[in-house]
Design goal:
The protein contains eight helices and eight strands, in the order H-E-E-H-E-E-H-E-E-H-E-E-H-H-H-H. By secondary structure, it is α+β, with helices and mostly antiparallel strands. The chain folds into two domains: 151 residues; 76 residues, Endonuclease III, domain 1, CATH 1.10.340. The strands form two sheets. A four-stranded antiparallel β-sheet has the order 2-1-3-7, with no helix packed on it. The protein has a four-stranded antiparallel β-sheet with strand order 4-6-5-8. The protein is globular and about 70 Å long. The N and C termini lie far apart (76 Å). InterPro entries: Plasmid_replicase_bac (IPR004322), PriCT_1 (IPR014820). It holds the Pfam family Replicase.
């Protein structure tokens, strides 16, 4: 008689091996702020940075309910089995899933995977009824000596495997409706479209970067406080750097050339709409 093998359970050593940050933010008291420390010292703190600044290696959801563990592991459920859950006060907890392939969030990466990651994260948050204001920056450290950890599956997940019936088809287009990781994507999309027409290849890089920073901070100031409010200063600066470098690298046309191109595209859309209206009217009148 054979028995099926039980799924492998994540261990502290495996979690440590998958943790990519070399100099993460960490703290024992969130009210005192967080600071960067060497990896091994940081992993003795109660809270650590969930992923490196350049990569998202894990999805973490903050569940502010007394039954966080039950919500995470109850079956059947809409979401995959978590990699770990760290319980906090009154049963609240952080629920995490390791990604098979970390998602790049610098100008070296593509925005589509980051946008998809934001949608997947929002879907998991909805499945667990997690905190909309949680950004995923700091997480309860499962390696801390006093951590109350429930270890889950040892497997890692692709973004597609983390998709649920709650995963939205698209992120909110308006900044005041964005939450969590979606705020990063919203700020990137909104600010970059605002500055495309302001770029000039002859503008000094320092001046260009300063202009982009101003637009990013303007977008950041519009995020709703109920959904987490503005992003930290460092994240705004990082997004501004990504936009300014990407545009400088890929845009060779001047401001006037860009505006002329936009004008031609706009005129083409208007002309096409007018032709459709004329064709519709002709069909109604003459039955063509």
């Amino acid at each position: 008689m054979t028995t099926s093998a039980l799924p492998a359970v994540l261990t502290p050593n495996t979690w440590r091996d998958r943790y990519l940050s070399r100099y993460p933010l960490a703290t024992d008291n969130l009210d005192m702020g967080a600071w960067r420390e060497q990896r091994e010292r940081a992993l003795r703190r109660q809270y650590v940075e969930a992923s490196p600044r350049a990569l998202v290696a894990a999805v973490v959801i903050d569940v502010d309910h007394p039954d966080a563990v039950l919500r995470a592991y109850e079956r059947p459920s809409d979401h995959p089995v978590p990699s770990w859950v760290v319980e906090g006060n009154q049963g609240h907890g952080h629920v995490g899933w390791w990604l098979t392939a970390p998602v790049c969030r610098t100008d070296a990466g593509k925005v589509d995977p980051l946008r998809y990651l934001a949608r997947v994260t929002e879907g998991l948050r909805r499945s667990l009824d997690g905190d909309q204001a949680y950004t995923g920056l700091l997480t309860r450290n499962p390696l801390h000596a006093d951590a109350d950890v429930i270890w889950g599956t040892d497997r890692t997940y692709s973004l597609r495997e983390l998709g649920t019936i709650h995963t939205p088809r698209q992120l909110p287009r308006r900044p005041e409706r964005s939450s969590g990781l979606g705020r990063n994507v919203t700020m990137f999309d909104t600010a970059r479209h605002e500055v495309y027409g302001l770029h000039d290849p002859d503008m000094p890089m320092e001046e260009w970067h300063r202009l982009v920073v101003q637009h990013c901070h303007a977008v950041n100031s519009t995020f709703d406080d109920v959904l987490g409010g503005p992003l930290p200063f460092s994240e705004v600066q990082a997004t501004a750097s990504s936009i300014s470098r990407w545009v400088r690298r890929n845009f060779t046309m001047t401001k006037h050339e860009y505006q002329a191109m936009r004008g031609r595209k706009g005129a083409a859309v208007v002309n096409a709409r007018r032709r459709d209206e004329r064709d519709t009217l002709r069909a109604e009148v003459f039955g063509e």
